[in-house]
Amino acid sequence: MTDVTVASKRRGSTWLILPGVVWMALFMVVPILMICYVSFWTQTTFNISPTPTLASWKQFFSSDTYTGALWTTVRIWLIVLAMTFIIGYPTALFVGLFVKSKTLSTVLLVICVIPFWTSFLIRVLAWRPMLGKEGAINIILQKLHIISQPIEVLLFTELSVVIGMTQIYCVFMVGPIAFMLGRIDRNIIEAARDLGAGFGRIFWKIIFPLSLPGVVVGAIFVSVMVLGEFATSGALSGRKVNLLGNIIVTQVGSLKWAMASVTGVILTVVMGMVIAAFLRIVDLKQEL
Amino acid sequence: MATQAEIFRIDGVSKSYGGVKALDGVTLEAGVNEYLSLLGPSGSGKTTLLRVIAGFEAPDSGRVFFQGRDVTHLPAHERGIGFVFQNFALFPHLTVRQNVAFGMANGVEKVAEAEIAERTQSVIDMVGLTGMEDRGVEQISGGQRQRVALARTLVMHPKLVLLDEPLGALDANLRGRMRNELRAIRERMGVTFLHVTGSETEALAMGDRVVVLDRGQIIQSGTPDDVYSTPASPAVAHFLNRFNLFEGSLSGGNFTGPFGAVAAPTARRASEDVYAIRYDRVRVVPAASKVTGPALTARYVASEYLGSSVMNFFETADGKVVEVEHHLSLGAPETYEARQNYLLTWEPDQAIVFGREGK
């Protein structure tokens, strides 16, 4: 093939990414730039004007409510991330590695996804009759005479938010890890056994490193969703737990566009740093 | 070989998968410092046999002994038997050096860092991978991966190494070179190799002793020469891929086949009457010739040039293909007219006859 035809082919195939580029520019790049811009606008009680000011930024970092929301978001994110990993990894290990039959492992993954057949809000709200003071867990524990007084910390606390989020997002951790584990050549594990390694060694030296890209992808999924959360915290904390997402919802609701934009920019930066940090752990380009 | 100390022995080992017998009462032993090749068609149970010896599968019945010890229920990682996988099964996230050192660094017995480094380097040098220590195993060629797989196993100083079609994944050129190297490495290390293969040439070329496996049973065991020149059954003759096999009937010391009735005084006992003549023992004469002994009319179809010999294909009236090999060291090959009839004949005492009447 001559250089000319290669070049014209390359030019021809460039068109394929055009719809994607247009879409991302219109609905991601432009809005993000807009948010950055609006965060410097001047906000008065009933009005907003494009006069540049740092007022909203100063207000964010000087108010305990806003910085508190930032730390709560980071704390809940870390706890939920750890929980989804602790619950998700063994599950993925079972589904992806120990289940020998491919059919059974697919069936098990589908079962993990079944909760998603109902809507997000229903899944969140279903925790209320479960965790409440007169909810299922308390009733059962009382009937079994394990407790005499209902446990009140179960609902409308940070705990209930963590429980709700862990349940919803766990499957996003299980999926990618199970996928990576399923791709491990069984002969490799047998080779390690043959060389005298026990299960613990094989897990830490072979299985875990090879599943790491799955862990990173799962962690990115969970992180992006948890950091942007507002519905679970709203529904299960009784407004006591305020995440950055909740701040944005409240600010937009009261037409405080500048403050909402500041919070949005901060949230976007946090997410960007988290994703960048995860991508440094493994070279996904090479591993997937 | 029987006088040498035995390194492993399996005794009446059977193994079934869902009602299908993969191994059916296999008994086999190997001596110290022996090269044993195990030949069998796919599905004959040869890989299962290796996996039972290695400890990846537990036999349904029978026992496995290694260095005089019953290891039937010992887990694989405590057996100290080397295993080289057909697809090499290298650890993809580790370098050549880390792959080779894996067993020493993570094995049951602790090995000192300095010793790990030294043994790793010496075995890497031995298999000819010097300079590649820090490459990833995805960045090296198939032949080099084969060497890493071998080095990774040999560095553990196993007394027995099981090789599951180790040359199957290599191209023909490399396969020939690796054959020589495998043999040389084995002799240098003084370990017993049990080499499983589906290729009769590989089995005959590599083994001090060849064991033929069919449908989960050992049907012959002997030196390559024994197996090649005196196959124990029609099935062995068939796997060797060196014999024209004819069906017929043996009675009163005569074998009657498509080539007429021929005296067969030394027929061997088998469950069916089969007449076997080696490809290179068949002579081709013009159709009108008068011959004494076996005579088979067949049509010339095609020939294949093999370098040191020419393989000629003939077809009998009932559609059976007869192969005739002509070694070029015996002179230039005859040229035959396509689709013309010729007479195929041979010395009857060079044939191997199997039959229910045999001894």
Q: How many DSSP helices of chain A?
A: 15
Largest sheet of chain B: 6 strands, mixed
Mean pLDDT of chain B: 89
Radius of gyration of chain A: 24 Å
Question: N- to C-terminal separation of chain B?
Answer: 26 Å
Largest beta-sheet details of chain A: 2 strands, antiparallel
Widest β-sheet, arrangement of strands of chain B: 6-7-8-3-9-10
User: What is the SS-derived class of chain B?
Assistant: alpha+beta
* CATH architect. name of the largest domain in chain B: 3-Layer(aba) Sandwich
Question: What CATH architecture of chain A do you see?
Answer: Orthogonal Bundle
Form type of chain B: elongated
Q: Work out the helicity level of chain A.
A: over 70%
What spatial form of chain A do the alpha-carbon principal axes imply?
A: flat
Can you offer a commentary on this structure?
The complex is a heterodimer of chains A (288) and B (359). By secondary structure, chain A is mainly α. Chain A has a single domain, classed as MetI-like (MetI-like fold), CATH 1.10.3720. Chain A contains 15 helices and 2 strands. In chain A, strand 1 and strand 2 form a beta hairpin. The longest helix of chain A is centred in the N-terminal third of the chain and has 35 residues. Chain B has 359 residues and is α+β, with helices and mostly antiparallel strands. Chain B folds into 2 domains: 224 residues, 3-Layer(aba) Sandwich (Rossmann fold); 114 residues, OB fold (Dihydrolipoamide Acetyltransferase, E2P), CATH 2.40.50.140. Chain B is 24% helix and 35% strand. Chain B contains 8 helices and 22 strands. In chain B, the strands form 5 sheets. In chain B, strands 6-7-8-3-9-10 form a 6-stranded mixed β-sheet, with helices on both faces. In chain B, a hairpin with a 2-residue loop joins strand 12 and strand 13. In chain B, helix 2 packs across helix 3, helix 2 runs parallel beside helix 4 and helix 3 packs across helix 4. The longest helix of chain B has 18 residues. Chain B is elongated.
